[in-house]
Amino acid sequence: MLAFLLVALLQVPASGAAQADTTRQPVQEKQVSADSTRRKREKKPPKRIPLTPELLSSAFRDPEARRILLLAREARMSQDSALQGYDATTYQRISAGFGFSKIGRERLAFRTESATHVRWRRGVGAYVDLTGSRTVIPIAGKSGKVSIDDDISPIPYYPGSETLWIGGDAAKSAVNENDGVIHPLAEGAEAYYTYESGDSVTFRLPDGKSIRLRELKVRPREPKWNLAVGSLWFDMSGGQLVRAAYRMSVPMDIVAVANADDSTSFDDVPAWVKPLIFPMTAQISAIGVEYGLYQGRFWLPRLQVAEGGAQVSMMRIPFKLQQKYTYSAVNAVEPLPPIASAKLDSASRADSTIDIEASVTIGDSKKTRDSARVARREARRRQCDSTGFRTHVRTSDENPNPVLIRVPCDSTVLANSPELPPSIYDEGEQTATGHEMDALVQEALNMGAQAAWSPQLPTFELERPRYNRIEALSVGGRADQILGKGYSLHGTARIGVADLEPNVELTGSRSDLRRTLSLTGYNRLVSANDWGNPLSFGSSISAFLFGRDEGFYYRASGVELTSTPDVAGASALTWGLFAEQERTARKKTDFSLAHATSDVDFLPNVESAKGTYVGARTRYTRSFGLDPQGFRLFSDFRLEGAHGDTGSYGRAALDLTTSHGIGNGAVSLTAAGGSSVGVVPPQRFWFLGGSRTVRGQKPGAEAGDAFWLARAEVAHGVGVVRPVLFGDIGWAGDRRQWRDIGQPLSGAGAGLTILDGLIRFDVARGITPKPGQWRVDAYVEGRF
User: Fold this and answer.
1) Burial (CB count within 10 angstroms: exposed 0-12, middle 13-18, buried 19+), residue 256
2) Alpha carbon distance 22, 154 (integer Å)
3) Pair 605, 552: CB distance under 8 Å
4) Cα–Cα distance, 260 to 249 (Å, whole number)
5) Taking every pair of C-alpha atoms in the chain, what is the biggest distance, in angstroms?
6) What are the backbone dihedrals phi and psi of residue 697, each rounded to the nearest 5 degrees, phi first?
7) Contact 544, 591 (CB under 8 A)
8) 10 by DSSP, 3-state: which?
9) Which of 87, 357, 441, 655 has its CA 20 to 30 A from that of 456?
10) Do the beta carbons of residue 665 and residue 753 sit within 8 Å?
11) Cross-strand bridge partners of residue 580
12) Can you spell out the DSSP letters for 293-304?
């Protein structure tokens, strides 16, 4: 998915900018395989909106903007022949997370980092020495093994490379919608964008020369996923790009984009399955590019950062790509010999896992495949035995200058390279984005930086079904419309077959792809639980199959103003203001498969205090540490206050969960507590018991306006699946009786933590106040 995001949205390889040199030279075996499995698509003719005089006249907010664009456009497609070569070191890190919630513990799914020494010479090409490389898949532990291609490290610059790090490796002069992203500096881009001049900065070099920078603000004429919004800075003496901060104007609807290319893309997906895999979106929320001036003349890339994420149904995948370049010499460099050949020999082919797979044609016998595999291993061994390195050459259509890549055969040397941070989990100096870059992104991509007002056609899709003891099966649909200026409208409607009460929400929101402000009017079923999400699809499965509905619910009708993050990260702040009428939600069904086979009934629901409440709530979560075997801490602070018919109340709670590896395993401890002031209505109590608090106890075994909770777990092994032993203890009740609680709730058991707690299976039994029955629970987004 990470590779798809980077290719689809940035239209660059997973290695990042200026990496045109990674395309492999075709070999006979690869051609045979490709021809036997698929036909190469014919190249489509260029597609672009005609640039009419009306569009051209409305493209510029001021004459200076036109001058900046034309100067930058000319510089983008020209090459400074005075730059003859450079020696540079590169560092790159690609990270991707994985989870089912934007608000929760940060979970690193994948990270790779590499360092290289690059020597580029005009007319020769580039010599690339891989000096450091390592990859981890923390959610899989030691079970996670991946082979990363040696070519993923970028080349800072080559003649004709794209300076803005958008739309491909090589700069293309004119707009072509078939290329994906519409470049704001390409010829004909005035049909898609408007331009406005911004701030100006002048600084003086040691030799007395002055450099004047001007800002060009770029805004799309309409909100589309392949149009960028941002701020670009140029050197007015020559038009070279100096720094940039931009993002895509709206998220990419993967389904809509696929259907635009082939209207039958999802015809074979059953209608009932679509709510389980949609929505399917991806977004680039921030891109930062910074250049450095060398020898008072040459602007070369110094830092490049991209952030974004994807959503596939309930799954969320945040990602970040960072690249840093340091130049030890520019122009004053030693000559390099010509690179002998751009053709791949057998040893080179053996070095590539992609070519290895492609060289086996359909229909080959197992014996033929085994023989080919043995031959490749032998070719690789011979090259490593003779030199200690694997060497291969790459060229591409976009950059015919060859790139010779040399890789040490000893992978431990690469993994322990001093060119990399001490740990792949560290946020070391190599990954620092720089305060100036952060400030530029914050200023350039604020909520006011948006595409123009241009309402798009609404989209419609089914909502995911849910099941609980109030509604039974609840189904519905959703409509969304992008308006422009960052605004959008959303409407959802669903109804349960048991209570037949409509759930309706109408929302107007504004987003900058990092944070969304929303105003919503609603009549909804609300979960009172502070832990977990009983209205999620996963909880619905548990309720329908096993009669385990851990939610406590109430009905609410009102209006709310909320602020939520768009991309999951190490920290997340949400807040909301609300005015709503709250009332009891009656249990309307006991049906489940467990009820049909074993006469298992759902628990009764909480009796709510009916009234109108006006108040505010906020939640702040923070994660520290990413190494499953290192120290990690997750904190979750919640604060709420309201005034209603039953009086005023306030409630606050803090959860802290820490873990650390010990030997061939790890331990985790959780401590949580909360209290309140005023008269707290029953629907805003804390409810203990169940899989999220005290396991082995029934949900709501204790409830009240104060609580405390402690959990301990010990896991064995480091892998995708780890067995766990645990014990929980907690109390909830009247805050005035916290000194006289009697016997607290407790339970213990064993389970499995899968993918670093992404999925949990627990078998637990209550201990006190009295032994209970064994309970089996399955859920997602576990604490550990």
Assistant:
1) middle
2) 9
3) yes
4) 19
5) 88
6) -105, 150
7) no
8) helix
9) 441
10) no
11) 558, 613
12) EETTTEEEEEEE
CA separation, residue 198 to residues 166, 184, 285, 530 (Å): 22, 16, 22, 46
Establish how many alpha carbons lie within 13 A of residue 476's alpha carbon, considering only the half-sphere containing its beta carbon: 20
State the Cα–Cα distance between residues 168 and 162, nearest whole angstrom. Answer: 7
* Tokens read off for 533: 């999400």
Return the pLDDT at 39. Answer: 42
Q: Quote the tokens at residue 41.
A: 């698509």
The answer to whether the CB of 405 falls within 8 A of the CB of 392 is yes
Tokens of 310: 């994807």
762, two tokens? 């627990």
State the 10-residue block means of pLDDT for the chain, 784 residues long. 41 35 35 39 81 96 97 90 94 91 84 94 93 90 61 83 80 89 95 97 87 96 96 95 95 84 79 76 92 93 92 88 94 91 42 34 54 66 74 75 88 90 77 66 89 95 94 96 97 97 98 95 97 92 92 98 90 96 97 92 95 97 91 96 95 97 93 97 97 95 97 93 96 91 94 92 94 89 86
Q: What single-letter amino acid sits at 730?
A: G
Q: Which residues are paired to 582 by β-bridges?
A: 556, 611
Q: What are phi and psi of 596, to 5 degrees?
A: -70, -30
- The residue with tokens 């993923």 is 152
Q: Tell me if 539 sits within 8 A of 549, measured CB to CB.
A: yes
> Is there a contact between 580 and 554 (Cβ–Cβ < 8 Å)?
no
**Which bin fits 80, alpha (ψ -120 to 50), beta or left (φ > 0)?**
beta
Q: Are 631 and 661 in contact (CB under 8 A)?
A: no
| CA atoms of 700 and 549, how far apart (whole Å) | 11
Fold topology of 625-784: Porin (2.40.160)
- Domain boundaries defined on the chain: 2-16+57-341+410-444, 455-608, 625-784
Task: For residue 594, give the nearest of 546, 646, 648 by alpha carbon.
Answer: 546
User: H-helix or E-strand containing 189?
Assistant: none
CB contact at 8 A, 496 and 553: no
- Residue whose structure tokens are 């010999």: 337
Quote the CA–CA distance of 659 and 668 in Å, as a whole number.
4
User: Is there a contact between 601 and 588 (Cβ–Cβ < 8 Å)?
Assistant: no
Beta bridge partners of 650: 641, 677
Residue type, position 476, single letter:
G
Burial class (CB in 10 A: 0-12, 13-18, 19+), 728: buried
